[in-house]
Design brief:
By secondary structure, the protein is of the alpha/beta class. It is built from 16 helices and 18 strands. It has 3 domains: about 270 residues, HUPs (Rossmann fold); about 90 residues, Anticodon-binding domain of a subclass of class I aminoacyl-tRNA synthetases (Four Helix Bundle (Hemerythrin (Met), subunit A)), CATH 1.20.120.640; about 50 residues. The longest helix has 23 residues. The structure holds adenosine monophosphate and zinc ion (ZN).
């Protein structure tokens, strides 16, 4: 097996990747809180994770990837205060928490599809793992890490001496960072909720009985419970955006390692932000939060142009959003596909993946996912003196990692049609109409899709589009 080097936030250096089980990798990627659409900043993180998964698969690893869907417990204030984000949305728009979670989960799955992101092998909702989360709290309670105050049960971070091992910040700095909106009853400002009690004066839609009283789990707990439950003996890589380092992942490590007395994950990988003008992180709370719909589809830009743009910036470097840069990325992608098709029209025999270029490509992607370099190597293949048959085969091989659907004609013949962005957009609008139970609108959108020569099939995991 070829060596893969990954930058591990835990040790702050590039390290050779060694999986716990030979040939198999377990990955946990923190998923969305489904009270709103994902913005393209969030999707940059999911793209980086997709690059990682494809690189591991290209290196012949069998990958099991788990992702959580937070449908309960994420509060408006990250210091375990405020309202549950989904219950708040429910109050604002008059739909149930369940309807909201299911609507935005479907929208998220469609976004992944539009960006050619390989879907996780296991999806789990926070609300489906309440028993496992309660069990984890019980283990922590037995070991003396838990205390109770008026609004819930908290983890005592002062009892976990390695609390700052991921953030590498001094405990004083971490405490300072956590001081905003302080809960006076907490023993330390970095302590975090494991179980929150339901308010006595109102009913929550999402609440469960527990040995400590009716309530709901703290946000960090679900990721620990799901990782331990699904990945057991293959806790290899845990990923997320850089904003998760100081609080969410730090807390996940503390509660998991305190409970199991074993190392949680070996590798922690974090993607840098997508920023909007002036280096400001794109956030759900900011006004110009852009979705696939408003940043790409509505502007007639192919969503894969965003994937192409993300490939051009190393995942640990900030990426700046501008409409212009997406337009340029689309031109770049078009030109790449045209070059590919021109080569294809001159290729007649089954070619071979060129060994020299493959080695270069693999050493670029295995060097902490150097995708900009990998793209440059693809361009060199196109410009090279290789015969068209080998050029084509080499480009196809590289596209397993790049995921740009260079060969959309071939996938067309294989019945795995490259669905045009406009059709995908119609299908998404139809799904929204269905979720809102506006069936006459969803039927007329289905008619429009069929008129264009595509079929839509509904299933438990959302819909599928096919060429008729
Ligand atoms: P959330 O739904 O807020 O929990 O975020 C989902 C994922 O997106 C997490 O891994 C975050 O770290 C990541 N994320 C949030 N904002 C950005 C951004 N502007 N750029 C890149 N990743 C982000
Ligand atoms: Zn998480």
């Amino acid at each position: 097996m070829n060596k893969i080097f990954l930058y591990n936030s835990l040790n702050r250096k590039k390290e050779e990747f060694q999986s716990i089980n030979p040939g198999r990798v377990g990955i946990y990627t923190c998923g969305p809180t489904v009270y709103n659409f994902a913005h393209i900043g969030n999707l940059r993180t999911y793209l980086f994770e997709d690059f990682l998964i494809r690189v591991l698969k290209y290196n012949d690893y069998q990958v099991k990837r788990v992702m959580n869907v937070t449908d309960v417990g994420h509060l408006t204030d990250d210091q375990d205060m405020g309202e549950d984000k989904i219950e708040k949305k429910s109050r604002q728009i008059g739909k149930s928490a369940l309807e909201i979670a299911s609507f935005y989960t479907n929208a998220f799955k469609q976004d992944l599809e539009l960006l050619n992101i390989i879907k996780p092998d296991v999806w789990l909702k926070a609300s489906e793992t309440i028993d496992e989360q309660i069990d984890l709290i019980k283990q922590l309670e037995e070991k003396g890490f838990v205390y109770k105050i008026s609004d819930g049960l908290y983890f005592d971070t002062s009892k976990f001496p390695e609390y700052n091992k991921l953030s590498h910040q001094s405990l004083e700095d971490l405490k300072e960072g956590a001081r905003v909106c302080k809960n006076d009853e907490k023993r330390n400002s970095t302590d975090f909720a494991l179980w929150k009690f339901s308010p006595s004066d109102s009913n929550r839609q999402m609440e469960w009985d527990s040995p400590w009283g009716i309530g709901f789990p703290g946000w960090h707990l679900e990721c620990s419970a799901m990782s331990l439950m699904e990945l057991k003996d293959s806790l290899d890589i845990h990923c997320g955006g850089m904003d998760h380092i100081n609080v969410h992942h730090t807390n996940e490590i503390a509660q998991s390692e305190a409970a199991t007395e074993k190392k949680f994950f070996n590798y922690w990988l974090h993607g840098a932000f997508l920023n909007i003008s002036g280096g400001k992180k794109m956030a759900k709370s900011s006004e110009n939060f852009l979705t696939i719909e408003n940043a790409l589809l509505k502007k007639g830009i192919n969503p894969l142009a965003y994937r192409f743009a993300a490939l051009q910036v190393h995942y640990r470097k900030p990426m700046e959003y501008s409409e212009e840069s997406l337009i340029q990325a689309e031109k770049g992608l078009d030109s790449l596909r045209k070059q590919y098709l021109a080569i294809k029209s001159n290729a007649f025999l089954k070619g071979r993946v060129d060994k020299y270029f493959k080695e270069q490509f693999q050493s670029a992607i295995n060097d902490d996912l150097n995708m900009p370099q990998a793209l440059a190597i693809l361009f060199s293949v196109f410009k090279s003196r290789l015969n068209p048959d080998d050029k084509l085969e080499t480009a196809k091989d590289f596209d397993k990692v790049l995921g740009l659907s260079l060969d959309f004609e071939e996938s067309f013949n294989n019945n795995e049609v490259e669905i045009p962005a406009e059709i995908k957009s119609l299908a998404e609008k139809r799904q929204i109409a269905r979720d809102e139970k506006d069936f006459s609108k969803s039927d007329s959108l289905r008619d429009e899709i069929e008129k264009e020569g595509y079929e839509i099939e509904d299933g438990p995991d959302g819909y599928k589009l096919k060429k008729k």
